[in-house]
Design goal:
Order of helices and strands: HEEEEEEEEEEHEEHEHEEEEEEEEE
CATH architecture of the largest domain: Sandwich
CATH topology of the largest domain: Jelly Rolls
Strand content: 35-45%
Strand order of the largest sheet: 18-17-21-14-15-20-19
Shape: globular
Distance between the termini: 52 Å
Mean pLDDT: 93
Length: about 375
């Protein structure tokens, strides 16, 4: 074997099987985790998480959609799930301000290795698998939310109903340091449809001050123009450098823990059956307080969403209630307060809900 061939072989081994360390900046890029549910129908507005964790449907003002976690995946690539958009009500002629896109937001403290805003700013490479019946040119943006800057690339879906891998490399930006904190610093956008307010500019292939007219300037399709249209994505990886390495497959447990920093489903009896919550104590004869320790340190003090009926058990009896509030909260625990019980102050208690009561408790600190 010649020296050149030996070096080439070494490079192949290093690229395909010997890369160490955490490379993928994206969380849940294989669409494994869907704590909120595997499908949401009748989606006609944006800024919601309709299925897979960390994937926000930021702009949905074109048509109506079912957004779901799908088992349709590229063959032989090690993926089991994808994220699917299925158009259920079409809108063939979007108004000027309409938009349809998927986004992924990243904390600034997880991006310091990009060295953005310095003379040593690093290139990043984005790779993903995509499939649609709607061929044409689509646009992906990286938006710097700290400095209101952006860069974009287009990609083509060339063959209908065929999984295709796309690889896009973006230059480093020597302007605008990213904040080293837990706020949204970079946002990735996959545009699927847009009105003229977003298409009338030019694709910013170099970093620029953000312009709304450039955010979908390279888009020549409207995924919302027919109820026959579908769009799938999986295997999303964002990494340092100008080379796309093989997808970093993480275990379900690792990916779930990363997602639970931003959101977790603490109770869902409709899908999980009868459930017990944490142990607490009766503050007085009418008030129970329960401390809920989060499974992961959350990004920030989360909000609480409560629905259904959850009983407080104490003194051998239960009080069904539909009202819980956050008395205290931080990124490690939340103290739930309930003022509807009839019990003895100082005694212990716990919460319990049956499947029939359809109780759901959620904690959210998403970007």
């Amino acid at each position: 074997m010649t020296k050149a061939a030996e070096l080439a072989k070494m490079g192949e081994v290093l690229t395909n099987s010997q890369i160490g360390g955490r490379r993928n900046i994206i969380i849940n890029g294989a669409m494994q985790v869907a704590q909120r549910g595997t499908s949401t129908s009748s989606v006609s507005s944006g800024n919601i998480f309709a299925s897979c964790d960390r994937w926000r449907n930021t702009g949905v003002t074109i048509g109506t959609w079912t957004i779901s976690q799908s088992t349709d995946v590229p063959t032989g690539q090690g993926f089991a799930k994808s994220l699917k958009y299925d158009c259920t009500t079409a809108e063939a002629s979007p108004s000027a301000g309409d938009q349809l896109h998927l986004s992924h937001r990243i904390e600034g403290q997880d991006l310091q290795q990009l060295k953005k805003g310095t003379s040593n700013a690093e290139k990043v490479t984005l790779s993903f698998w995509v499939k649609s019946n709607k061929t044409g040119t689509y646009q992906v943006n990286i938006r710097d939310k700290d400095n209101t800057r952006m860069i974009a690339k287009t990609y083509a879906i060339s063959s209908a109903d065929t999984w295709e891998k796309k690889t896009l490399t973006f230059d480093g930006d020597t302007t605008g340091v990213l904040d080293n904190d837990n706020a949204n610093s970079l946002e990735l956008e996959w545009f699927l449809g847009a009105g003229s307010n977003y298409t009338s500019g030019a694709v910013p292939t170099s970093w620029e001050a953000e312009s709304a007219t450039d955010r979908a300037a390279g888009l020549n399709v409207n995924l919302g123009d027919s109820t026959d249209n579908e769009w799938y994505i999986t295997g999303v990886q964002l990494e340092l450098g100008s080379q796309a390495t093989p997808f970093e497959h993480r275990s379900f447990g690792e990916e779930l823990a990363l997602c639970q920093r931003y959101y977790y489903l603490a109770m869902d009896t409709a899908n999980e059956g009868d459930s017990h919550g944490p142990i607490g104590a009766n503050w007085n004869s009418s008030t129970a307080r329960i401390v809920w320790f989060h499974p992961q340190h959350m990004r920030a003090s989360p909000s609480l969403t409560f629905s259904g009926t959850v009983a407080v058990y104490s003194n051998g009896q239960s009080d069904n209630t539909t009202t819980y509030s956050l008395l205290a909260s931080n990124n490690r625990y939340a103290q739930l307060n309930n003022g509807q019980i009839s019990a003895t102050g100082g005694h212990g208690c716990f919460i319990y809900a049956t499947e029939a009561n359809a109780a759901k408790i959620q904690f959210d600190s998403e970007l």
